């Protein structure tokens, strides 16, 4: 029920402020305000005869008719205020401004939320809610005029499985202005009346411009520093943030709350572990881990800290990732680890990866209304209570890959939840144009996935992980990616040697892996395709057709056996040794296609260069033989290795172990 006098909000704490994009970010307006019609899932009231419609049909119809219209950027008056032209409507049922009621209902003790909307002019405020199925329901409304504050007290009880609150504004006979709006709560935070303080920590390596821009952005939103104890940059690169010409200028607003630690390149896990370590040392309540190649919505920091303050128990709270170069695209709404495969997965099958909220906004997307429970949150933006760090330790020294997922699983086993919190997000350089499964990073993918399986898999022999690992070895060998396969075999050897190598490997392993690239032609990237010989064959392969269809699942095994036999024992075509047979785009670079040739040019995922793959029967035979031998050894010793890694995990991730590593690799420290 709305009121301007009966609800006292003076003692309530702001949970979430309604915000608008900065002037230079008009491409992200749909994430903040929406001028389109609401078109939530419409379910029938009867289920007989022609009225019968399944939920699947209803959501399909919704997606076909969804309308998400962009608001006019010229109406925005600042970060908190906007005007609505006469006869127009504006909805705040959007990613950054709807209130994620189901998350507050599940993870906090709050049972009511108060919406305060301050306006000027004549218009109507309409409050809506949704349920977990995406059905939209009108809750309340108020007609207001002049300078007014409308206040709505809203129950959180109906939101066990999902749902949001939001409001729309309708301008009537004249212009209507939103002055500001806030979502408020009257419960006491778990961390005390003043709330907690976070160390915001960015790990970087030669991404100076990104870091400077993020420091500048945070300095321009200085009010969020009420919740920040320190902004810490862990610089592991050779191009130093502190050497940027704008450095002193951008850090000036952060005086007394800024520090840089320069250390050797210990990878993402070494950088983020340093943030955890320093946040415990400086007395912070939380550490907020951030990637370097990101653009942060500053309000997200405040929201993560506020939500964590209210959680019933210490809880890891993460933000979502949007695409840096397609800014309304949300990559994932939550992530879990498939326990049978020890591999990344979606929490439920309805979820769409890479969902464009510019085309289908929150109100028009049914699955976004379901609360998503996760196993972990990516460390592009993840808030971890220092209470949790003290209980379960720091990151495992995995250099990169799987450190965030392993930590989430470790926390889960200790009874500590992770929440991927809607309304808190950033823009990250997308992995759409990357392929980190090949090259030097393949070592870390292989080793760290298997370490995670050894420590956390509930299945004997790790479920499907060893079978999939061996399949990937066959795939890379058949694809003539011998350098990638060399790294994967090194990973298996290091895994079998036990957990004692992990801290030393942070600084020692990468130079060894990269040093081997010189021995493999498939690791040599050339930016100019004319640096290679022209493709040439006696006759076009496969009758000149390029419809490289994969083998059917039924025929996959016999097809693979035949392909291995051909590649291992049939001599390489002499002409193919001097000239590639064909040039393939990255999209065509699939193992079932590449394996049909003796020599070919392949564009890399980024589109910046070309590799020359050449078939080498001896390389294939030796690497597959070694892969089979190592997997047989892993299978035989799985139980003992699992015990070794589980017994050592706490010590390896401990404060004391990391202190020794940091003492050895710290280069300098700078405060401002």
Can you describe what's shown?
The chain is built from 17 helices and 24 strands. The longest helix is centred in the C-terminal third of the chain and has 36 residues. A hairpin with a 5-residue loop joins strand 5 and strand 6. Helix 9 crosses helix 16, helix 11 runs parallel beside helix 16 and helix 13 packs across helix 16. The protein is globular and about 85 Å long. Strands 9, 10, 11, 12, 13, 14, 15, 18, 19, 20 and 24 form an eleven-stranded mixed sheet that branches. Strands 1, 2, 3, 4, 5, 6, 7 and 8 form an eight-stranded antiparallel sheet that branches. The N terminus is likely disordered. By secondary structure, it is α+β, with helices and mostly antiparallel strands.
């Amino acid at each position: 029920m709305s009121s301007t006098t009966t609800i006292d909000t003076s003692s309530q704490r702001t949970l979430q402020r309604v915000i608008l994009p900065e002037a230079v970010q008009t491409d992200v307006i749909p994430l903040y305000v929406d001028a389109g019609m609401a078109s939530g899932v419409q379910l029938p009231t009867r289920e007989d005869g022609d009225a019968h419609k399944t939920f699947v049909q209803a959501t399909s119809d919704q997606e076909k008719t969804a309308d998400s219209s962009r608001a006019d950027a010229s109406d925005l008056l600042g970060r908190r205020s906007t005007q609505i032209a006469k006869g127009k409507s504006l909805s705040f049922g959007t990613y950054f401004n709807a209130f994620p009621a189901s998350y507050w209902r599940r993870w906090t003790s709050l049972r009511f939320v108060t919406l305060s909307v301050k306006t000027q002019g004549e218009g109507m405020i309409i409050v809506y809610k949704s349920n977990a199925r995406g059905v939209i329901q009108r809750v309340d409304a108020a007609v207001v005029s002049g300078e007014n504050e409308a206040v709505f007290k809203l129950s959180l009880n109906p939101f066990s499985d999902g749902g949001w609150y939001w409001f729309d504004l309708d301008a009537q006979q004249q212009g209507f202005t939103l002055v500001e709006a806030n979502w408020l709560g009257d419960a006491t935070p778990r961390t005390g009346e003043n709330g907690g303080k976070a160390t915001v920590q960015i790990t970087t390596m030669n991404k100076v411009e990104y870091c400077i821009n993020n420091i500048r952005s945070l300095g321009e939103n200085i009010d969020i520093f009420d919740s920040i104890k320190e902004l810490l940059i862990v610089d592991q690169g050779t191009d130093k943030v502190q050497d940027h010409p704008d450095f002193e200028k951008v850090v000036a607003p952060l005086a007394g709350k800024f520090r840089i630690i320069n250390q050797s390149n210990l990878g993402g896990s070494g950088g983020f572990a340093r943030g955890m370590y320093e946040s415990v040392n400086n007395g912070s309540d939380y550490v907020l881990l951030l990637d370097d190649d990101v653009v942060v919505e500053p309000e997200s920091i405040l929201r993560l800290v506020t939500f964590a303050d209210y959680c019933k128990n210490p809880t890891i709270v993460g933000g979502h990732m949007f695409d840096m170069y397609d800014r309304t695209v949300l990559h994932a709404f939550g992530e879990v680890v498939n326990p049978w495969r020890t591999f990344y997965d979606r929490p439920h099958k309805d979820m769409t990866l890479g969902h464009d909220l510019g085309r289908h906004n929150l109100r028009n997307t049914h699955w976004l209304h379901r609360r998503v429970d996760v196993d972990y949150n990516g460390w592009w933006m993840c808030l971890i209570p220092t209470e949790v760090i003290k209980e379960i330790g720091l990151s495992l020294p995995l250099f990169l890959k799987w450190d965030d997922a392993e930590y989430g699983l470790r926390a889960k086993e200790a009874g500590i939840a992770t929440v991927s919190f809607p309304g808190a997000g950033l823009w990250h350089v997308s992995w759409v144009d990357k392929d980190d499964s090949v090259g030097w990073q393949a070592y870390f993918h292989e080793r760290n996935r298997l370490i995670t399986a050894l420590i956390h898999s509930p299945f004997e022999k790790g479920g499907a992980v060893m079978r999939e690992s061996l399949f990937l070895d066959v795939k890379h060998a058949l694809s003539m990616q011998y350098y990638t396969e060399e790294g994967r075999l090194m990973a298996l050897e290091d895994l079998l040697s036990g957990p004692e190598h992990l801290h030393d490997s942070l600084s020692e392993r990468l130079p060894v892996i990269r040093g081997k690239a010189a021995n493999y032609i498939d690791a040599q990237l050339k930016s100019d395709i004319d640096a290679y010989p022209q493709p040439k064959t006696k006759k076009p392969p496969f009758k000149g057709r390029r419809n490289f269809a994969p083998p059917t699942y039924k025929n996959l095994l016999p097809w693979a056996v035949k392909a291995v036999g051909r590649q291992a024992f049939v001599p390489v075509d002499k002409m193919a040794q001097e000239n590639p047979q064909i040039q393939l785009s990255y999209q065509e670079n699939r193992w079932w296609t590449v394996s049909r040739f003796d020599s070919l040019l392949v564009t890399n995922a980024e589109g910046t260069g070309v590799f020359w793959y050449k078939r080498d029967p001896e390389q294939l035979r030796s690497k597959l033989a070694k892969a089979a031998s190592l997997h047989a050894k892993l299978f035989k010793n799985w139980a003992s290795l699992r015990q070794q890694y589980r017994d050592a995990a706490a010590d390896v991730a401990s404060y004391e172990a990391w202190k020794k590593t940091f003492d050895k690799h710290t280069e300098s420290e700078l405060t401002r």
